[in-house]
Amino acid sequence: MQVTVRVKPGSRKGPLVETVDDGLVVHVRERAVEGAANAGVEKALAEHFGVPPSRVRIVRGHTARIKRVEVDD
Asked: Entry's Pfam families (predicted)?
């Protein structure tokens, strides 16, 4: 399954996943430095969907706030 995700790095709310009309909003505490926020997004989504983190991967948007993420069930 693929989902569109908007990332909010450096958020005090994080880690938090919110559902919106066009996808998900993921708040993570990690800053967008050296892939730390991407790792936080993968971990938060894995927890949200109840799968291991190895089953979540970013398909598009590695350097953007809006990402396309694939989750293997």
From this structure: DUF167
The tens-digit pLDDT sequence of the chain (73 residues) is: 999 999 999 999 878 999 998 889 999 999 999 999 999 999 999 999 999 999 999 999 999 999 999 999 7
Q: What is the strand order of the sheet 66-71 is part of?
A: 16-20, 23-27, 2-8, 66-71, 56-60
Three-state SS annotation for the chain: CEEEEEEECCCCCCCEEEEECCEEEEECCCCCCCCHHHHHHHHHHHHHHCCCHHHEEEEECCCCCEEEEEECC
